[in-house]
Amino acid sequence: MTINFEIPEFIQQQTQMIKWVAESTMRTVARDLDEREHERPTAFVETMWPIVRDQQASALAKLHGTTTEPTEKRERPSTRVLGLMLLIEMLSWGDAGIYLCLPNPSLAGAAIESVGTTEQKMRLLQRFAEGDKPVWGGMAITEPGAGSDNSSMSTTAVFNEETNEWVLNGEKIFITNGKLALEESNGLVIVWATVNKAAGRAGIKSFVVEAGTPGVSIGKVEIKHGIRASDTVSIVFNDARIPADNILGSAEVQASKESKGFQGAMATFDASRPLVAASALGIGRASIEFVKEKLAEHGVTIPYNLPYHKLTAIQRDVLEMEAQWQAVYLLTLRAVVMIDQKQPNSLEASMCKAKAGKAITFITQKAVELLGPMGYTREWLVEKWMRDGKINGIYEGTDQINTLIVARRILGYSRHELA
Amino acid sequence: MVSFTPTDDQQLLVETINRYALNDLRKHAHDADESGATPANVIQAGWQMGLVPSAIPEELGGLGELSAVTGVLAAEALAFGDLSATLEIMTPALVAYPVALYGTAEQRESLLPLFLEEKAPRVSAALLEPGVFFDPHNLQATISEDGLLNGVKAYVPLAEGASHLLVYASSAHNEQIEAYIVPGDAPGVVIEKRELLMGIKALPTYRVRFNDVRVDAAARLGGAVGIDYQRLLDRMNVALAALAVGVARASFEYARDYAKQRVQFGKPIAQNQAIAFMLAEMAIDIDSARLMTWEAAVKLDAGQDATRESYLARQFADQMVLKACDHGVQILGGYGFIREYPAERWLRNGRGFPSFTGLAMV
Ligand SMILES: Cc1cc2nc3c(=O)[nH]c(=O)nc-3n(C[C@H](O)[C@H](O)[C@H](O)COP(=O)(O)OP(=O)(O)OC[C@H]3O[C@@H](n4cnc5c(N)ncnc54)[C@H](O)[C@@H]3O)c2cc1C
Predict the structure, then answer these.
(1) Answer CATH for A9-129 from 1.20.120.450, 3.40.50.720, 1.25.40.10, 1.10.540.10
(2) Three-state SS for B182?
(3) Using alpha carbons only, how large is chain A's radius of gyration in Å?
(4) Class of domain B123-219
(5) In the predicted model, is pLDDT for residue A256 greater than 70?
(6) What is the pLDDT averaged over residues A275-283?
(7) How many whole angstroms separate alpha carbon A202 and alpha carbon A197?
(8) Can you give the residue ranges of every domain in chain A?
(9) What is the distance of C-alpha A319 from the center of its chain?
(10) Which of A114, A277, A390, B209 lies in disulfide reach of B190, CB 3.0 to 4.6 Å?
(11) pLDDT per residue as tens digits for the range A217-241
């Protein structure tokens, strides 16, 4: 082993191909879709669906070959999540809102893959691996009364022995891809609900809700500050009936206070937070590149060897933007490589996410400022990147929540000791 | 392939340094700061870890392992112990590395064996200049067409009694920065009295005047080819960034442990978000700076252009270390202000980083 930052050649090539997708199907419509909220990025979806579908198909084919839960140890360390990070970075460079419309299992896939049985994986993920019509997945945790404190959720799941079904009641809000998954495709959403409110965290379980499930409806379609191309809706469960084997993990309410099921949910954050940071990086890079390009047109270039007093205020700002970006890039790189190497990365995942949220806000808000009156116009994309960037400090744990997690980890505190 | 794991040799070296940093450097840091000197045997023990000697080329008896990555790992670990002593231990590198990298055959053969001795050679380098607007690319010290060196240098570590000084100056001849190897006792070299600084007080630094000091062509580092000055600045930036990480980590770990045991309002102060969040931010930015430093060092070792990465790492680390050390004092409250505790020393040392150009090199 030796310290090394070189991205494998094949991932670099993949990233270059994705750049073409970003330029031809994202940048071209980024402004229009921002202005006409709730319209879908058709060209992007059509371009990406066959690629994503075929990848999913080959992943499932591998699964068919195995009889037990996959425990095989590969010789070479995987680069899967590293590739994903750079893919998301580049797609978000194209457009972060459109990137979120990528037709794929998304967070639902991550949950099914990490907690689902082989049977569940085959049955539930097959839809993402076949057909001409794109399919979406989503993850529903947030409720009106349960945001950062998602353990206080009140959506209920009650088992009906007669019909052998789970019956869900409640409302989930701010669900990314909810409408695409449940109304506009044959997709699915993972819904978190409590089977025993008195049991607290131990009572919280996750359920796979498939399109067409009776008693499930899309409520409010949100109108947003940024990532307007992304689908954000509330989902209402009114005696929604879910097959018994659509529960992920065990139905038992463990005696111990810390439920494995809830911890499982939190563990998917370790995988998803670095990917949110990756999206922030894409927006940040787009902003920095654009600012430097515009400044260069006015004869302002960025030096990397001058003392502080010789730098103009603008140069100082841009250098700070670049340094902050680099910090997030490296923290994120570390967090994803740890996933690929199967190392626990909760601390590192929250570190990169917390830093990403703050850095992207700083970078994009600066970009608007530095470009003066033009930066503020909707003729250019910087003002949109500022609006898009802001979400990265809010979802998948706000900046404060991720900072809190980092703090607990470095101090060795439980959530009771540091609330 | 992306990896964050140092080689086995590097890990071993860091473990050794960690022990030395805690048992020796940290132990003496307070008294050294107050008295203005680190005990000679402590410095000697640091020198004997062999960082500089191993960087000397093999054909001259070293190990030929001049690695920026090894350098930054060592720098952070040492600075975690004490910055003054680290700078003192690493001062010979300010001459050894530029000579190893750019020296002519004669310069290498005559100077580099000095660095293989049991005791560190007394040599130093003079880059920084007094004044508010120091610019390493626009040095006021000059070398005239006929080989006369004139100017004033500041923050020259261990200058008194130095056998050789590596002096950076603007050349009247080609308008570039050149480096000259000047005997410490050459006529016209005036070592003024020791400087008084806010921090790094155990490191003796001097202002040095050069009044019509005659230097011949053979003293020009790199001969006719000269040096890659920007590359040397890159190496300095990376080294300083790594040292800043070490100092910041010292402040962070001390404050973290203190905050967990200091009880106010019936619970440890670390159980308040206002304190815990300061610590979390310190941890995140320390890791960021370290990774930026590593990235720049890897580029240096790979022979790639590293100017941007080194500069950004240094810029980030300069700000980061100040904030980390300031938080360190704040978290200790009144005790942070008392010299018996290390936090205020780290703040004084940490504040200096933007001004330390030329004081360290990997
Ligand atoms: C566009 C968009 C898409 C989303 N997509 C999804 C999705 O797909 N699935 C899903 O389940 N959710 C989704 N969310 C929801 C998102 O995860 C939540 O909004 C987020 O977790 C914050 O919850 P909240 O909005 O209730 O804010 P609150 O939890 O009420 O937080 C308000 C403020 O208080 C701070 N705060 C809260 N608790 C603490 C604490 N203990 N210490 C310090 N500060 C604290 C927060 O940081 C924040 O600043 C999405 C949200 C948006 C806007």
Answers:
(1) 1.10.540.10
(2) strand
(3) 22
(4) mainly beta
(5) no
(6) 98
(7) 9
(8) 9-129, 137-248, 260-411
(9) 28
(10) B209
(11) 999 999 999 999 999 999 999 999 9
